[in-house]
Amino acid sequence: MDVKHRVVITGYGAVTAYGVGAERLWAGVCSGQPAIGPFDLFDASRQRTRLAGVVPGAALRASDSPTDSRSDTFAVAAAAEALARADLILDSETDCGVFFGSSTGGMFEGEAFYDALPTAGPAAHRVLAHHQNNAPGDAVARRFGACGPLQTTSAACAAGAMALANAWFAIQEGEVEVALAGAADGLCQLTYAGFNALRAVDDRSCRPFRADRAGLSLGEGAGVLVLETQEHARRRGVTPRAVLSGVGSSCDAHHMTAPHPEGRGAVAALEEALAGAGLTAADIDFVNAHGTGTPLNDVAEWAALSRVLGARAGRVPVTSTKGSVGHLLGAAGAVEAIATIQCLERGMVHPTPGPGAPDPEAPVDLVRFEPRPCPDARHAVSINLAFGGANGAVLLSNWEE
Amino acid sequence: MRRVVLTGLGTIGPHGSGTEPLAAALRSGDAPLQSVEPCSLHGANSAGLALYQQGELTPWLAPRAARRLSPSSKYAVAAARQALQHAGVDDSGGAEQPRTSVRLGVSFGPSSVTESLLEQILRGNPQEASPMLFMESVANAPAGQVAMALDLRGPNAAIAQREAAGLLAFVGGVSDVTTGRCDRALVGAVDEVTSLTHGILDRFDALARPTEDLPEGARPFSGNRNGMLLSEGCTVIVLEDEESAKRRGAPILARVAAAVRANDPTAPASSWGRGGARLAKSLRRRLDAAGVDIASIDCVVSGAAGSVRGDRLEASTLRALWGEQPLPRVVAPKSVTGEYGGGFLAAAVLASGGAPVAPPKHFEVDPRLRIDLRDPRHEEASNPRRTLVSALAAGGAAAWIVLER
Q1: What is the pLDDT of residues A28-52, one digit of tens each?
Q2: Is the pLDDT of residue B56 over 90?
Q3: Which of B41, B157, B398 sits opposite A155 (nearest CB)?
Q4: Chain A residue closest to B200 (CA)?
């Protein structure tokens, strides 16, 4: 397609197991200490594993709406931070879009309702108004008075990346000049037990790209970014923080939960993002991988990176934000895009925590132990692979006039 | 900019499989309601009927392949194959296929699977939860199953936006084709009915209930409306670039003249707001950008479903859009198709092609809305040139498309 607008990022906000705020996320991922541990959100003693990256309760301010789900609260908090960072106040004349992603919505609250059946009372019914996947995005649009397009994409673990892609295309097509793009997902028993049923959860903190990795760690949270045309940001007198240069999405059409072994869909998503950005693989300075830590994912992702990056595949620095905060499911793509932008802004790639020798079957140049300086990095890609074979890639660039 | 046309329509739902039984039902105004098995949420005064899928799936989906799929995934694969056959497309798949996206709107997703899984996890042993149920419980499972069944490798996702989900999926597919990102898009909506979903919606007073004088039924825009009908099924529409469609001699059902999205931030989480004027302003702005003159629209296929507040917002939006001008012919097929499951999308395509849509049974004009679905003037315009299709969701999301012959 013809790229008509440079889409810049002027603000971002994140809620993760490190707490509320993108600065907490950055300090956490750079610490090398994962925020994955025991939790009391629900009784994990009945589950096969016991760890997750749960948002600390004390970090959450009471929501405006007492019936908001945890996911709604994460989403609104992240959006408020993003808007503040972008110095943007929405007015009724601006058609600001809200492009969101969610995989579980208010399922945590839905479970409490289901558990209380058949005696659940009217108060329990009210929380169901927020249990659907669209609820976090709706809550953001309602809270900040957004009058433009409102759309929640549910594409499992690629939902956040696809939400960014949807916003990017809406801006390119001239539908909106400014949009909030992001995703939110709260931890719930359904996903916890479900991923355990797939034997996809490590009983230790996850160890992406290590030879002895044994699965992912689940997490929760939200990430929201303010996207706008460069012209819109300039008119507002705001200096962008980064550029969303290109986006890509695809489907493996291979298996409901396993990635294509050659990373077929991930390759297509990466190539689409590069083409949209007018860049080549040689321009990619580092990669924020999906990096779940499952045996199948990391090998498939290496295959995809090898195909796209060619001989550079083993030399391009790779990190996985999931190693620090766990797998945020639908929210992963949004939070990982924010972490990637923070790496570009600071000129250093955050490390991937966890012990273990590198996997010879997926020999990426994994950033470990401490942040790695990369002061000349200009472009980075963040990748997400999902149930249903969905894949998303977002290409982020340093802000340069 | 590429122009997008509709070349295929597949639908499976309460009226059966394919467009002919649906067209007949739209003409007669009959909704094939069936009793819902009550759950603990249903009370003495609850709604008791819903629209269950009645179509035969086996022509489209081998029983062996269907065995591990949720009802939603089965409906989606069947409707997608129907749509491609209607479009004259070989569905054997493969890397040589045009790049095709799949975008399916959902409201509740594969709820029967989710409920079974919750039962296992919360009331049983979570360590014995079924991995098969889990992988089918995600909202995008039906879209993913369509992609696998047909080897479609473009963007693939569910759009979760309640009553506007199907039309938003349509808008996303239009974008896929106009931008050249994809050669073709399969768009639509899918949902399934469970007793629990029915009971929950009933507790929110969302569903039509019988009264002393009237049977249970949806009466959009009517003064005696009191809720919607819950429905299930799937509709899939094939979108493609007009030039490509012409080159391959595809049947062209309609051309997309505009595709618009907006939000009403005055809406509460589970209902509709009062922002009709602002919605109309957003719609007008985008129609102007697409070069669509309001005066050229001679039919509205309204997403009004019989909801007291939802229909009020729909009416106020249409009134604000047309201003002092008289509204064109308005039809509201959800009295027949119910809400969710894609029947509305199929009805909209049929109506845009001239299929008659009967007014709801027991219709009486609501003096506050002033929309008369029995207006005899409308019979004169049964072959619309341009049709506005609308969908306003609880929670605020809105989508419209304009189809032209």
Answers
A1: 999 999 999 999 999 999 999 999 9
A2: yes
A3: B157
A4: A125
Residue A190: which of B102, B117, B265 has the nearest Cβ?
B117
For chain B positions 300-359, those within 8 Å of chain A (CB to CB) are none
Nearest Cβ partner for A134 among B137, B203, B395: B395
Is A65 an interface residue toward B (CB < 8 Å)?
A: yes
State whether B141 and A256 contact (CB < 8 Å).
yes
Map chain A to HEC letters: CCCCCCEEEEEEEEEECCEECHHHHHHHHHHCCCCCEECCCCCHHHCCCCEEECCCHHHCCCCCCCCCCHHHHHHHHHHHHHHHHHCCCCCCCCCCEEEEECCCCCHHHHHHHHHHCCCCCHHHHHHHHHCCCCHHHHHHHHHHCCCCCEEEEECHHHHHHHHHHHHHHHHHCCCCCEEEEEEEECCCHHHHHHHHHCCCECCCCCCCCECCCCCECEECEEEEEEEEEHHHHHHHCCCCCEEEEEEEEEECCCCCCCCCCCCHHHHHHHHHHHHHHCCCHHHCCEEECCCCCCHHHHHHHHHHHHHHHHHHCCCCEEECCHHHHCECHHHHHHHHHHHHHHHHHHCEECCCCCCCCECCCCCCEECCCCCEECCCCCEEEEEEECHHHEEEEEEEEECCC
- Residues of A marked active site are found at 157, 290, 327
Distance from CA of B179 to the nearest CA of A (A): 5
Q: Which residues of B touch A170 (CB under 8 A)?
A: 175
Report d(CA B37, CA B139) in Å as an integer. 24
| A347-398: pLDDT as tens digits | 999 999 999 999 999 999 999 999 999 999 999 999 999 999 999 999 999 9
